[in-house]
Request: fold
Amino acid sequence: MKKKAMKDFAEIFELGGNFFQTRGQQISRQDFLEDTSNLNLDFTKYESCKHTVTALLALKPDNQLHEREAILSVLNHNNHIEDYIEQHLDVEDTFYIVIKKFFDAWAQHVGFSSTSALMDPKTQSFQIKKQEKLSIIDNNTLIEILHTVRLQDVQYGVDYIIVPRFVYFALSKWYPCNQAIERKVIQYRQDKNQALSMFKSKKVSNTQQMKGIPDSFFKIVDDCTYELEVYPKFIYFEKINDKGERPHQRAIINQKIDPQYIKKSMKSSEKLPFFELSVSRKTTFEEVLRIMSAKLQENSKRGRLWIEDQVINGVKLAETLEEFGISAGQVIYAEYATNSNQWPTDSLVQLRQGTLGGVGEEGKEALKSNGLYNLGNTCYMNSALQCLANTKFFYEFFSKEKRYQKQMNLKSKHGHQGELAENFASLMQDIWQQGKVVYPRQFKKCISNISEQFQGYDQQDSQEFLSFLLDGLHEELNLRLEKPYIENPDYSPERNVTDLALETWSNSLRRDWSFIFFMFFGQLKSTLNCQTCNKVSITFDNFTSIPLSLPEPSKILVNIVVYRLPSEIKSLLSGKLPIVNVTPLGFQGGLQRLDSFRSDEGGPTPQTPLGGANIKYTENDELNTLMNQQLNNQPIKVSLRVDKDIKIYQILQQLCEIKEVNIDLQSNQTAVSLYAIQKGQIRGIFNQELRLNSYQVSSNEIEAIEHLTRKGRDAIKELYRKSPDYLHSNTGVFYPSLLANSEKPSGDEPVSQKSQLTATSTTNQSKKSQREKKNKDPNFGLKLDRYALFNNYYNALERYSEFEQNQNFPDDVYVLAYHRRFVRKQHAFFCALQPQIISSPLILLLPIKPSGRRIYDEVWAVASNILKKSSIYHDRRNRWWEQAGWEEKLANAANHKDDIFKPFILKTVDRSGYTCSQCTWMKMCSGCLLSPSEEHLDDFFKKLHLAIEWHSSLIEEDYNEQVNDVIQHQSTQDKQIQQEEGAIQLEDCLKKFQEVEEIGQADHIYCADCKKPQGHLKRLEIFRPPPILIIQLKRFKFAGTLRNKLSTMVEFPLFNLDLSSFVSDQPHLLETLNLDLHYDLYGLINHFGSLHYGHYTSLIRNLSENKWYQYDDSHRTQILEEQIQKEAAYILFYIRKDVQSKSSLDEIFPHITRDMFPGKPVTTENGHGFILEKSGLTDQGLFKVQYEKGRLTEVVSIDQIKDEKDQDEIHYDAKQLQEIESHKKDKQKELSNRPRKCELKGRCKGFFQNMRVPGFTPAYYKPQRNGSAQRTIRRGSIKAGIAGRQQSDCNIF
Reply:
């Protein structure tokens, strides 16, 4: 009900409440009149609104007619409940759920029509049929069994409906309701397009519940979004007891309640072991804590929340459930401080500070690493750090035993004086402190100082960061103080390959000996075979990860949003004048009065909801045409699975073959252009002759738009000549400028301005002049490609004079037009009114030299759909450029109000759509006005970017929100189209890795026998598998300037990855080293998104409790093995089974002084050598040693081996520490004097552009012609003085 009506009946409503308390729920209108006869009430007002009062006070209706009219009155006689909800989302805040079974029965009871109409065809009145008596509103059947507020898996419109509170209040009094289920309207501020896309993404989610929610439950008013939250967050909560224990811990699986446990607990109790809570996703944790505390009768100011093992207190209480990522059915524990201000769980924290081995003594809990906050695009770093932190023995080495402190090589030339290792160890120690999310700021600062690649907060590759980190840690923890140069031996057929590999490994150990080396480094065998002389060369190289190439899919999925020409233009092209001034009747579900609309025969007119495909009407052709027109005015989304190298025109052909797209390319009256769009900005138009893989775009960044061609305009012009009466009508879309001379020929002067004789003479002279120019310049008259002109527009502007002189411009060019309006900003930099882009941009195909009036006509014909059909500006007499005297108003525009320029004006802008393309930055112009005159624009090429500046009040009143509602074609739900090609096995990728590769002569591989570069055959094999095997799935493909991400599904085993068939045949060595060739997965890094932007997460298997956890920056969630997302896997971490079973760090990291093993470098009297194997019995201390390049092999005793120069620990005296500290200070001073690089990497420029201050650029960035940036003066200041901003061209076209 409207606010005014509520105000009028406020005292009556209050009075009625007193009656209910004394006389019960049922009271008739007659009783009410009798009881209020002695009061001073205005009964004339009551009589005029008696039905409203009946509903508001829930008075007992006299009959079914009064009951029906009472409900209609509180709905303002709007017989469409969803429309009423949409209109009142910003006024009312509470609505109620009613079971649909009752609602259908009640609707028929009072004479409404629900799913089936009950109508007597002989009469015009309502027909109320006898049926069973309505008893109660049984909402309990909608609630989950054993719960009080949780809904079952029910769907809106099928199992229940939602009604306003006044309707529910009356119905619940007339028919008692056993369960009140209210739903609130949430209000928040968010970008309009983002909020709308999030709401629609929920509707197309996998849950059947959300699919039934109508769009009317979502509304945007100004900058505020109103949403009826049908499915709020449902959570369980309980209180941690005084001993710090969590009740019913056995009931929780993956932080949710086990249904089997509930059934068992219900045998001994009639209620759930947890409290239930249903709150909005926009609710803060502070409000949740307050609600819980009230239920638990505790003081919320002394409480905090626990979600899994993360504490929510302090500033984190201001975070909302949505921001944190709370899932439905999650368990939250509340903890309250004792009288001594101690937390009960503090006594248990120290019990968790055991080993990473986890569950040791009874009562101890396995350690789990904490989440890491995202500092700004640092998810690549967080995901890699989580995998390393959960690697076997990392906790012992860096946190528990802290061995790193005695092994830091502070004097290494390849390290950083222990800075990286110290910061990494500090971060590892923070990660293992339970109940604390870590901010890795200091570590991020450290790697930024060490490597410029990781400065700032740009997106990086997680694999590159991982390689950088492992190499850096290895160098800083390397026990080898000196790294001598050692030449690896050459292969010869006479020498055993295993001996050659052991010598190469021994040479590596003379230079590298660290915890990182023995954990992550393995050995690859590389075999080269010259195709000319058949010389075989074998070398061995160390590796930390294996990059595996993925096969590219033969077909890719392309999702295209198609924007069609308005239906009225389509009617003109088909030779039919469009229907105007027809308003569709009907509704989209809900209540419909059977006597509302009737056909001539007395029966009801069939009604069908809008928005569906293949709508058919049999009785009303006008309505049928109008409904189809409305569907054509909305964009449609289509999914295609096409060849990756398909040409663009072939995509367009497949697109237009779909009937629902309704575009006919055969007639040549319209054309379709495919373009790339990202974050609302058009990146470029695809050339129809090129292939799709020529462009660096993702499948969801492609849209298509339909244009009129010259042939189409000629067809409309011919229709005008046949129907002159249509030109005199004031409504409808038409192009009066087509009948005028609205296009200037490409020559120097229009022929129509001269006599025929003069024209002929001029033409002959012109042709002669053109022949002379063409002989001098071969490029004269050569028409440029319109795609290249649009995509490289600013480069073309620089050569405008050259192209104009040589007549290189095409006859038609692409014009980009942005819908925008001005809005008032509270925190504007200069001006409070700032332009705002609304709706999707338009691309038009216009002549190179049109008239201003022609441009306005073309734009209005396509852009008019943004207004409702009821708008007065569909009448041409109300458009300012159609009125008499517009020239004078335009000349005196500064003295007039903006109201005279309705519905819009056109302004020339740059590619962004916000600032003027003609004026300098000093004018701070948002765009120069384009006049709708009949004069031709010879320099129109300089104005190809336009802003359709709608009047703000017009957008608020007449904006047609359906213009942006995308119709989902059935192909978007087709499983055959959406489903990716079959997954490949990891074993197949490993087989491809070791396949023989042919290398051509052009790759310059030198053959020692041929004495020149030759073609070779190359093969790679794993020779020594490392304890920790890192596998990179190469999803990012780089081919020249083209880049792409492969979404190929790779199936990989979680346990028992067998490498026996991929390791070079060497059974004796493997047996000697006691290496197991089976691996188990313990971690993986996922990458979601495209090559240009994306997000990293990590999945970790806690080795102590054998449970999987997902780490999404600061959030940690336990998951099942079945929930592992293999389709996004990027980096896999496998641990060798024999390493997994080891319990001591010494078993994997040998001592440099006393441990002897095959490949260990040793020195005897005969020189440097390495151990081949142990000889004799173990306790005899005899070893078989081979010397450099296999010159000698002998058996030596342990006493003959000289002591190592390096030790297992590194110690420094005071003088050395002073030198190291001095070196650190010098390095820090050098870093401080180094030119500081903007950590935003150019995004600060975008920040100032978003403030709409034309020309203002951060001082430390100077725009260059090629779009690059260089530092000019000190960071922090702002320099203004760039006369004109250079626009960088699109980098993908």
Summary: The CA atoms of residues 554 and 643 lie 6 Å apart. The chain is about 30% helix and 20% strand. The longest strand covers residues 812-824. Residues 756-776 form the longest helix (21 residues).
